[in-house]
Amino acid sequence: MLQHSDISNVNTDLLLWIGEGLPVRDRKNRTIGKVRSVYFADDYPATSPLQSLFRNVPESIRTRLIYEGFIEIDNDHSPAQIYAASGQIAELTYGFVKLNTTRGALVKR
Length: 109
Fold this sequence. Notes:
Elements: H1 12-15, E1 23-25, E2 31-39, H2 59-68, E3 70-75, E4 81-85, E5 89-93, E6 96-99, E7 107-108
Parallel strand pairs: 1-6
Antiparallel strand pairs: 1-2, 2-3, 3-4, 4-7, 5-6
């Protein structure tokens, strides 16, 4: 089972300040899309109703998203939804969410 100590750089407090419609940029400052929804951490990912949202996602990634909390991003380049775990959020600044990773490292559905 995933423990709190297994997760580094979890920025769950940032989720409190992120709102729908905020632009999202990757670490290279490229626009990814806009925040569609914010999901807060669940200490019991195995029984979370969010499990059904990620049926085709490997269990370890699904557990991380649910356990840390995450944002759902409307993708500017395709109809697929993109998800960033709170640990992938570098900062909230100047009216946008800045990630510490690139688009390719994010979960897509």
